[in-house]
Write a structure and sequence with these properties.
The protein is mainly α and 436 residues long. The chain folds into 2 domains: 185 residues, Growth Hormone, Chain: A; 219 residues, Growth Hormone, Chain: A (Up-down Bundle). 79% of the residues lie in helices and 0% in strands. It starts with 18 loop residues before the first helix and ends with a helix.
Length: 436
């Protein structure tokens, strides 16, 4: 009999083959994630137009972002369970229907409540994409490719953010609200057709039927078993601690901070936000290659990113007066490392859980960073109101959440390493005894 903390390692099965067909299937899945990120970030370039269209102030406008994050974070575990039970293709198709409907509805919305409901619907669909893409990678590529495949997925997602900034903003200025948002919904329709016609959950004969577990108490068992693994909890706290500084900066508070507190014009501030995105894409490739080749580099890279982020934020906030431009550029480059570092959380959870539990474990991990982002978005807003827009005090919230997350990472790190070594030994021993 096994206990929740000592779950028997699953019987090893042949690894996925990888290759050109795997790239095609994974590329199809990640293109859905690209469209979802484009929709997710589309409001970031339409804030002024949205305020005019719906006749709302800054607080009501920020509710769009907060609601999306709330829906996204709240659905991570349910979506992970769905992915484990239904498979990638069905969950991705449902996600596309939801976020495309939300984007198209947002194009036609003429009142704030309707627009808010459409963004919530978009958030529901968006929540179903990334975990599905991660599962697709584990089903089509060998385990050694996992870190690089995950980082590439994050990189392509950031490319969606870049398209929003460089393309959607210009289309909006040229054609207006409804044509821009309604036209962009066509990408979702195309993605849905491609997924329904061509996407396969896994190679023929590999892990067949593993996506259809169930029975009485299935949900409780899945969550309890995933949570019992120290690697899952460590991954969640790594994601919690690394992702939110850049997310908060890009999603809402970066532009006001750079303009109001640092004296940049809107164009200059926008350029620095683009630096964060470009840095994310470059560092994601570096982190992915490094971890794929040196598995034990996961924790040092995550901890180093946390330390660098805290150091640069402290330098900017404590600088007498406004920080020099070069310091702000370095801050944005370091913030670009936060997204790739958060992906390391999945690299801790992946080897800790068998294939049939990957979606649930990924959902738990992914919930971490978005919970931290929501908390920080609210905390910064409240502190700005209480202090009369004192960004030094408001952004001190970053250090509080980093300290909380870091304490949990240090607490769980050795336990997760020990458990992972036990799993490797158990898998090797069982592989020896599996009849040919």
């Amino acid at each position: 009999m096994t206990t929740p903390g000592h779950i028997r390692a699953p019987r090893p099965s042949p690894e996925p083959p990888g290759g050109g067909r795997a790239m095609a299937m994974w590329g199809l899945g990640v293109s859905v994630y690209f469209v979802a990120v484009t929709y997710r970030t589309s409001l970031g370039v339409a804030g002024i137009e949205a305020a005019d269209r719906f006749d709302v102030g800054a607080s009501a406008l920020s509710t769009f972002s907060l609601l999306q994050l709330l829906v996204y974070a709240g659905l991570q575990i349910p979506v992970g369970l769905l992915v484990d039970r239904w498979g990638t293709r069905k969950v991705l198709a449902l996600g596309i229907v939801l976020f495309t409907t939300g984007q198209f509805g947002f194009a036609l919305a003429d009142s704030y409540p309707v627009a808010l409901a459409c963004r919530a619907l978009l958030g529901c669909g968006d929540a179903m994409t990334f975990i599905s893409v991660l599962r697709l990678g584990t089903r089509w590529f060998p385990a050694r490719r996992g870190p690089l495949v995950a980082q590439l997925a994050g990189l392509i997602g950031m490319a969606g953010n870049l398209v929003t900034t460089l393309v959607l903003a210009r289309v909006l200025a040229a054609y207006g609200w409804t044509p821009t948002f309604a036209g962009s919904a066509a990408a979702g329709v195309l993605a849905l057709l491609l997924v329904l016609c061509f996407l396969k959950d896994q190679p023929a004969g590999h892990a067949a039927g593993a996506e259809r577990p169930g029975g009485r108490g299935y949900v409780r068992r899945q969550i309890a078993a995933a949570w019992a693994e120290p690697g899952t909890r460590l991954g969640m706290w790594v994601h919690f601690t690394t992702q939110f500084p850049a997310m908060v900066f890009l999603l809402l508070w970066g532009l006001p901070f750079l303009v109001r507190a640092q004296g940049l014009d809107v164009a200059g501030a926008g350029t620095l936000l683009t630096v964060v995105v470009l840095s994310n894409m470059v560092i994601g490739l570096v982190y992915g290659q490094t971890i794929a080749r040196h598995h034990h580099a996961r924790a040092p890279i995550a901890l180093g990113t946390i330390a660098a982020t805290a150091l640069l934020w402290a330098a900017v906030l404590l600088w007498p007066g406004q920080a020099p431009l070069w310091v702000l550029v370095v801050l944005c480059v370091v913030l670009g490392a936060c997204g790739p570092a958060s992906m390391i959380g999945f690299d801790f959870a992946r080897p800790a859980n068998p294939p049939e539990r990957q979606g649930t474990a990924s959902g738990i991990v992914n919930m971490g960073g978005f919970t931290a982002s929501m908390t920080t978005l609210l905390a910064v807003g409240v502190l700005l109101d209480l202090t009369g827009d004192d960004f030094r005090v408001a952004f001190a919230a970053v250090f509080v959440l980093q300290a909380l997350g870091l304490s949990q990472i240090l607490r769980l790190r050795k336990r997760a390493d020990r458990r992972e070594r036990e799993r490797i030994v158990a898998s090797r021993v069982e592989a020896v005894h599996v009849p040919a």
